[in-house]
Design brief:
The protein has helices spanning 3-17, 24-39, 43-59, 63-79, 83-99, 103-119, 125-142. Helices cover 67% and strands 0% of the residues. The termini are close together. It is mainly alpha-helical and 174 residues long. The model is unreliable at 146-174 (pLDDT under 50). It has one domain (3-172): Serine Threonine Protein Phosphatase 5, Tetratricopeptide repeat (Alpha Horseshoe).
């Protein structure tokens, strides 16, 4: 069982027990369940979880949970090839996380969203490189092992970015 399978299993169990209850914590679990479902190829469940989270946030706005909902929305939009929406939701999610005392969450979100953008073959892949550079800088600030050298750097030829030289640190690998 991989980590995302574990996340989905734990979130689904917690959400099943909390039927009818509402809290910011449950909204966060709902977004994590959706993100896990997406990684297992279940875009329908991810869309359902996104709708549930957005409904909960319409009644009780919470900046951190809203940022995670935008992250899920961006990932889903990349998977469904709704690229302009994906970039807008990515922008909102990263900006919201930057406004909070959540640099590790923002760094991880930048890496995760870049992976989705690159998988979607989004034409504006340079943005994904920017997200990776920003994430690497945040990881370096946090003292995360291996973050001092960015996994995505512009090439010396001036023809754009080149592929990552190594895998992301284990803490952010999926």
């Amino acid at each position: 069982m991989n980590r995302w399978e574990e996340v989905r299993e734990l979130c689904e169990a917690a959400l099943a027990v909390a039927t009818g209850a509402r809290s910011i914590g449950l909204t966060v679990l709902t977004t994590l369940s959706g993100r896990a479902a997406l990684r297992e190829g279940d875009a329908a469940l991810a869309a359902t979880r996104l709708a549930q989270a957005e409904k909960a946030l319409s009644n009780d706005p919470a900046p951190y949970a809203a940022a995670l909902a935008d992250q899920l929305g961006a990932e889903l939009a990349f998977v469904e090839n709704r690229v302009p929406e994906a970039f807008e939701r990515t922008r909102r999610a990263l900006a919201a996380l930057a406004a909070l005392p959540a640099p590790a969450d923002r760094a991880i979100a930048g890496v995760e969203l870049a992976k989705f953008a690159l998988s979607a073959n989004a034409q504006e892949w340079v943005r994904a490189g920017d997200w990776l550079e920003q994430s690497a800088a945040l990881f370096a600030t946090l003292g995360t092992t291996g973050a001092a050298s960015a996994p995505w750097r512009p090439s010396s030829s001036g023809r754009g970015a080149r592929a990552p030289r190594r895998r992301p640190p284990p803490a952010i690998a999926t």
